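Task: fold both queries, return tokens.
Query 1:
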Amino acid sequence: MELQRGELHPDARLYTVGALIVAFALGPGAAPPAAAQSSVEVTPLRLELKAAPGGTTTQAITVSNTGKDAVRVRATISDWHLSRDGSPQFVTAADPKYSASGWTRVAPPEIVVDAGKDTTVRFTLAVPADAPPAGYRTGILFEFGPATGSPIAKPREVVFKSRIATLIYVNVGEPPAAVDLTDVRTRALPDQPTQIIAVLKNTGQRTVRTRGTLTLYDKSNAVISRTVVPDVPLLPESEREVAIIAINPDTPRPPPGEYRVEIKIDVGLPALIVGETTLKVS
């Protein structure tokens, strides 16, 4: 595979991602519970589907109640996007041309799951015949609440709800990938491993995922440490930051000095994306 190189420079920022959202609804004068947590699991949390214009697919999602009480599960379809640091944001699609929510139906939309039991929620996705090749997306939000009673909090009553999302990627056709590495910078926080932040810009119309390596070299060009670039999505026509641990925690910490950092990222292009910067170890 051919390599492309570019000189980039250090600075700071961070990446994180998650799909679990927890919310509290508190009545006047009520105190939040000391340790409230969801006892429901959803599998899978991510689905990547290949589809053709005019095609239809039905997929199953398993909801498991691992708690001691029955729960009411409500399933809704939601648009989402990723913030610059990679966190899912469940809001109305900012760019509806990549939304697959209008193509999706879920059943059943509401069900009670007994303690220790599993249930299956299915969704059907029908791609329009005129859908152009692109990377589309939607999501299924599962909200959990008490099996009985009103989901609306009464005065001085605490209602605990949690939501888990299954993120759905729908790849229609094979549009060409187009990704650039626009910056590389370091991020160092107290009591946390130093990170290298790679800023990637996707100018194409397909979702790609990252993989690769970060290698640390000393002045003699000897390899000091090698870490893996995390597998994260880069949505169409978007820019995001990917955080990579600068020094492999399984290797000895290098002595103080300046080191060369080389990042090689594979997003499915004919050539690897390669960037370099420096890291000062104190």
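Query 1 returned. Query 2:
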Amino acid sequence: MTSPQAAPDATSRRSDAQGGSRPRARRRGIPEATVARLPVYLRALHGLAEAGCATVSSDALAGAAGVNSAKVRKDLSHLGSYGTRGVGYDVDYLVYQISRELGLTQRWAVVIVGVGNLGHALANYGGFASRGFRIAALLDTDRARVGESINGIEVQHVDDLDAVVRGERVSIGVIATPAGAAQEVCDRLVAAGVTSILNFAPTLLAVPAGVDLRKVDLSIELQILAFHEQRKAAEGPGSGSAESLAESLESVARGGGR
């Protein structure tokens, strides 16, 4: 193993932050499976840093991230990070390396469309700022909500979407609307120039080539958990709650994203 390189100075960090918007990981050919694990490593590393750990072994990082140590070493080798034998990885520098590869050394502007219960929760989440994201605007079709302030951000009407995307240089759109409105909102985001979309609405969306779409379906995730709860209940005591839990989750799934 070779020693980790010294952390780049402020000038090189600014250069990385001001580079093109295309993720470095893609340009360098990092496998998608590795890219999907990098945020997990980053979360674990932030926890280690907050606990005062200066270095971490691949075994310890693997345990914190829930993967095996060989996978950690292989994933981090794609970043050019090999650690030091007998010492491990420098936590702060590894945080910087992963943040750089994920494009988090700059602040990405995000617009949330739909400020129902889920939209409110996302707008109030305090972890975005520390992870490289800025909630630039909140939009909704309900004029009764327009002018409402959520976490210091005034809700605007969705008709202002084009101007918001241009004025705030929005990079990422988040859809937190009911299923029936999601495709129209998606189309409007794409037409305004947004090329990365995170969809929380319980429906499949169609996007053109060149637009990255990620879906988070809370009802599906809950139903998967219900399946496991039901299986555990069938194998042991406490089976009485499984059926009611599954029925409740089915109700959530039918109710939509608001």
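Both queries returned. Flag for query 2: The two ends are 51 Å apart (CA to CA).
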